[in-house]
Structures are given as structure tokens and as C-alpha cells.
Amino acid sequence: MEQNQEIHSEHGHGYGVYILVWLGLMTLTGVTVAVAGINFGGLTIATALIIASIKTYLVLTIFMHLRSESLTFRVFVGVALLFLIVSFILLFSDYSFIVRN
After folding, report:
1. Which of 34, 29, 67 is nearest to 51 (CA)?
2. Angle formed by the axes of helices 15-36 and 43-58, nearest 10°
3. For residue range 12-46, what is the model confidence (pLDDT) as tens digits?
4. Spatial separation of the C-alpha atoms in residues 81 and 41, rounded to whole Å
5. Residue-by-residue DSSP string for 28-45
6. I need a labelling partner for 58 at 20 to 30 A (CA). Which of 12, 24, 81, 92 fits?
């Protein structure tokens, strides 16, 4: 029981942090919806991806406690994010080739 409390206090943030991050996520969701209605041309998708990246960072560090995890776990998450970025690069390079032709 005491060990569980130590683990919980090690990962825990105060409720205030969770509420602030939740409000931030809701605000960013509202910004995403607002930006979707504005025509930025080629920057629309980039803007949505930047906002989604910020939201992902907040969820990973605060709600999933990635900051307090071991280095091995953080490396695995980093490798997964690297493959995701490579997939996006390949996807958008293929999409730009299709749009030109």
C-alpha cells in the first residue's frame, strides 16, 4: 500500500495542472476547428499538424506521465514518433506528386 502511494506521488501532478492542461487541450481543439474554416492554402494541413503535435506533447507528458518514465520507455516513444514523422513525410511527398500530375 505504501509503495503504491510512493509510485502515485512520484507520477502525480496536482489537480490544478490536470485542469489547466485539459483547458489547454479544449482551447487547442477550438483553435483547430476555427482554423479548419479559414483557407490558409497549403498551410492548412501544416497548421493542423502543428496544433495536433502540441496536443500530443501535452497528453504524453502530463496525462501519460512520460516525463517521469524510464529512459528506455522514452526512447521507444521517440522511435515510434520518428517512424510516424517518416510516414508523414512519405505520405505528403506522394500526395504532392499525385496533385502535380
Report:
1. 29
2. 170
3. 778 888 999 999 999 999 999 988 888 888 788 88
4. 26
5. HHHHHHHHHTS--TTHHH
6. 92
